[in-house]
Amino acid sequence: MRQRSFTHFIFSVTIVLLAMLSSCQKDSDVKDNSALKASIAADSIATSSPGNFLAAAGTLTLKIQDSTYVFDASKDSIAFINVRDEIDDSKRYFGITAINKDHNMSFGISSSGLVHDNKNGDIAGSQFLLSPGYKEPGFQYSLSKYAGQKDFGNIHVDKYNQDSVLAKGTFHAFLAAGDKASAPVYKVEGSFDLKLK
Questions:
Q1: What's this model's pTM, rounded to 2 decimal places?
Q2: What is the DSSP string of 58-122?
Q3: Which residues pair with 67 in a beta bridge?
Q4: In 16, 133, 178, 185, which residue has its Cα 20 to 30 A from 8's Cα atom?
Q5: CA torsion sign, 142 to 143 to 148 to 151?
Q6: How many of the other CB atoms lie within 10 Å of CB of 11?
Q7: Which residues neighbour 29 within 8 Å (Cβ) at sequence distance 6 or greater?
Q8: What are phi and psi of 103, to 5 degrees?
Q9: Which letter does DSSP use for residue 25 in this model?
């Protein structure tokens, strides 16, 4: 169980980092040329790997407790990523990572395996962060990692990389509001309809 928790942690951190790296592309208010060059380099890293795409249009919507949060690819950064283990090619993951334009809200969710149309997958990692600039006080939800939990959630990809559709589907995950075994766990439900152009 400890190995699985560590894997979830590492993958969640990877998703958040990729979101942060790719987020600067949507920031149209950048006036400093060096910042623009750094932004382009970061986007290149995040999207240059085969199978990694930055959505050009569409939305990622999630509901937790009594609130709904929306990422809009026309202004926020939403990436669909595919990750494989360099040592063990059978270990593959896919997921969605997003960060808003103001860099105070981010979300990531992943599943193991190869992505394709009509793909159902168990959730391998997920994290939702709101910094104090978005909501007072800021908070973090992450995939529950305690032994009693058997269902971590599911992602269903209806369509993937067809015509102008990057990815379309739904998901649910069970995220904890803290890192203690007694932390409350909430069901997060969401959908994504992402376009390549």
A1: 0.74
A2: EEEEEEETTEEEEEETTTSEEEEEEEE-SS-TT-EEEEEEEE-TTSSEEEEEEEES---TTEEEE
A3: 64
A4: 133
A5: positive
A6: 22
A7: none
A8: 60, 35
A9: G
- Structure tokens, 142: 């992450």
pLDDT tens by residue, the chain, 197 residues: 444 544 444 445 455 444 444 444 444 444 444 443 444 444 444 445 667 889 999 999 999 988 999 999 999 999 999 887 777 767 889 999 999 998 889 999 999 888 889 999 999 999 999 887 766 667 888 887 665 667 789 999 999 999 899 999 999 999 988 777 788 888 999 999 999 98
Q: What token pair was written down for 117?
A: 């149309």
Q: Which residue has the tokens 């599911």?
A: 154
Angle between helices 33-48 and 2-23 in degrees, nearest 10? 140
In 3D space, the residue among 103, 80, 74, 92 whose CA is nearest the CA of residue 171 turns out to be: 80
* Tokens 């969640």 -> residue: 12
C-alpha R_g of the chain:
16
| Euclidean distance between CA atoms 22 and 81, whole angstroms | 11
* Nearest CA-CA partner of 164 in 71, 56, 86, 66: 56
Cα dihedral sign, 98-8-50-171? negative
Q: How is residue 108 written in tokens? A: 């990531």
